Amino acid sequence: MAVIEKGSFEVISRSPTQTRRIGMRLGEMLIPGDVIGLEGNLGAGKTTLVQGIASGWGSYDSVSSPTYVLVNVYRRLDRKQLFHLDAFRLKSPEEAIDLDIDAILDQGPLLVEWADKIEEALPEDFLWINMRFINDEQRDFIVHARGERHKILLKRLREEIYGA
Ligand SMILES: Nc1ncnc2c1ncn2[C@@H]1O[C@H](COP(=O)(O)OP(=O)(O)OP(=O)(O)O)[C@@H](O)[C@H]1O
Ligand SMILES: [Mg+2]
């Protein structure tokens, strides 16, 4: 494990399955108000990670790329909701402000692909994952967090991945 900066960590995924598994570990922990920002180029694995997160959270809906609707909603048997926003097509953070992210976060956790495009519209506190293509099968993830709650999430995720 490479420590990038205090409180951040790096993990290399060697397959889409491994990426989904990392996502599942994170998804299990999420509660309303949690924000997961995903930053990385086309094919970095953002949607693949979201699939794992949704599955770990308990969604019975399958994940799709929110290409036409901006935000996808996934549901769970207890009627809780998980939100998935893809900011790829947004031209400015202002377009995201119209979404009323605070209202979304009252309802459930929020996952954001291309989070860097709308960072100014997002809450101050979040878990952020920088995702980078290494080769066909490998991706590099650097995880960092801002704010007390998201730092707890980061620590728990790191412990799940690497052991305490
Ligand atoms: N270790 C890995 N982790 C995640 N995806 C991987 C990995 N190795 C190969 N892949 C493949 O890379 C592709 C990742 O696509 P995915 O849609 O998740 O990326 P994305 O970051 O959401 O891209 P986009 O910006 O186009 O939405 C998939 O085809 C997946 O099978
Ligand atoms: Mg995607």
Q: Which features does this protein show?
A:
164 residues, alpha/beta, seven-stranded mixed β-sheet, 5 helices, binds adenosine-5'-triphosphate, binds magnesium ion
Give an account of the 3D structure:
- By secondary structure, the protein is of the alpha/beta class.
- The chain has one domain (9-162): P-loop containing nucleotide triphosphate hydrolases (Rossmann fold), CATH 3.40.50.300.
- 31% of the residues lie in helices and 27% in strands.
- It has 5 helices and 7 strands.
- It has helices at residues 16-27, 46-57, 93-97, 101-107, 148-162, and strands spanning 9-13, 35-39, 71-75, 81-86, 110-113, 126-135, 138-146.
- It has a 7-stranded mixed β-sheet with strand order 1-7-6-2-5-4-3.
- Strand 3 and strand 4 form a beta hairpin.
- The mean pLDDT is 93.
- Adenosine-5'-triphosphate binds next to helix 1, helix 2 and strand 7.
Overall tally of domains: 1
Characterize the main sheet: 7 strands, mixed
Quick one: how many beta strands?
7
Query: What would CATH call the homologous superfamily?
Result: P-loop containing nucleotide triphosphate hydrolases
Pick out the low-confidence regions.
Answer: none
| Helix and strand pattern | EHEHEEHHEEEH
Strand order in space, largest sheet: 1-7-6-2-5-4-3
Number of helices: 5
Rg, rounded, reads 15 Å
CATH architecture: 3-Layer(aba) Sandwich
Counting helices, strands and paired strands, the structural category is alpha/beta
Can you describe this structure in just a few lines?
This protein has helices at residues 16-27, 46-57, 93-97, 101-107, 148-162; strands at 9-13, 35-39, 71-75, 81-86, 110-113, 126-135, 138-146.
